[in-house]
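Can you give me the bound-state structure? Components:
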Amino acid sequence: MNYRLIKDKIFFGCICFLSSLTVIPLVAIIWQLVKRGYRQINWDFFTKTAPSTLDAMLAKSNGTLISGGIANGITGTLLMVAMASAIAIPVGIFAGIYLEERPNTAFSNTVRFLTDLLQGIPSIILGIIAYAWVVKSLGSYSALAGATSLFIMMLPLIVRSTEETLKMLPVSMKESALALGAPYWAVMLKVMLPSAFGGLFIGILLAISRVIGETAPLMLTALGSTAVNWDVTEPTSAVPLLIWQFYNDPNLVDLIWSSSLFLMILILILNIIAKQVAKKWRIQ
Amino acid sequence: MRILSIKDILFKRLLFVAALLILLICAGIVYTLVSGSYGTFVRFGFFHFITSTAWNPTIGHENYGALSFIVGTLLTAFVALLLCLPFSLPVALFTGEYFRGKKIASIISSVINLLAGIPSIVYGLWGFYTLRPIMNHLGWGQQGFGLLTSAIVLAIMIIPYASSLSSEFISMVPKDLKESAYSLGATRLEVIKNVTFPVAGMGIFASYVLALGRALGETMAVTMLIGNTNNLPTSITSTGNTMASIIANQFGEADGLKLSSLIALGLLLFLITAIINFIGKMIMKKFAA
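Here's the bound-state model for the whole set.
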């Protein structure tokens, strides 16, 4: 065999080898979470709040499982993500429609540029922003502030996915609906949006899975709480915030694995649903 | 001509307001960051703030500078970019060239996508409990903490961003160009070297610029691994702080001048990432056109 062919084969081998190496961190991380976290996941994990440091220390010295769970984190995450989505989804979809309808005006180009800018802002900065806007005005850390930072994170993702999906729909669809005499709003909301449902839904799921594991902005805004809290003006916990809190407490540190495992499973489920939807709703 | 009904007008207004809101949020972010950091810039001067390595919160001797953190941020991000290159580029070639459209390529890209889905704090935990002991054993960093440790974790975190975009550019290289090279007897490696890279080069470069933008702003994993010391890093294994990590560490207890300085760091980080992202997007646009 000649030298060039050998070089080609070696290069191909290297590519395959190095590509397969990227599987290692994923497997290593998930394996570690499962191995060290699965025992903590039981009924209490979902229904009870995190134990006090003292209880955890006692359980640890007795060699038993730390009792209690992360109910405060789960409800907090749910509350804040729901609030953020409730605003980000409609605003994002409407702004996405606007950009798709007027693709080339100066205003649209500016908004599109700013959407990209917004998407690139590090999440910690959105924490500062929500702190300045909400925490300072309310005078207290709150779920509302946390939701504000998550809202700004989700918004650009939803705007862009809406615009991209609508772009893929055939123009004839809109034209025929208008020709049948349907008013503009009905064409957009009852014809175009339902047809774009798949793409929109995927965009929303991915946006949620992006913000659900965010820790940094919540540290500056929601702060955390030891009890289940549904009052949006009070400090609230979230699963990633609890992981951070456990990580910093030598007595509770065993709980990081189960909480991270839970978070990973949640994100995995969102991704799998998105993938299934993508398969089913692919626009031809 | 159709006469627009009230509902239609209202609907169009609604769309406009939603788009306007994005503009207002961006304007608000810039305003908040600038007005929040105003105190610091007035006290120390913009130029002095970004060139000073001081970070002294003692009351009466308060003195803050951003240089240590700017250096820490740039150093970790660039090292992460270098470290991710030997893995993300093969992945891009694997999914965009060698096995494009094959099942194995979609498996690898799913794995890569999942890597992108892992929260920053979980990477931090992994880095702390798995990577840090190894680094400690090798004698790199302080008990395994340091810029290099964070850069390694950052490198893994940005592989998905770098590889999925460059894979797209690689798969967009026109088939006839590659086929004419094959017909001249070129091997696949030669085609990649002489056709794919020259054609897709700018696009690949742009994906790495955007990945750099990601690495610059990453917070939690870095905060947990960098060692959190407020001095100018002297080597790649020394401890330090990035702009994002010092904000995460000290924002909670800060007020007055210190708070203002942290917000000023936020403003600088915002500007740096915005510029990097802007450059990446511009190159990409030029390449696509």
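A couple of observations. The two ends of chain A are 46 Å apart (CA to CA). Chain A has one domain: 71-280.
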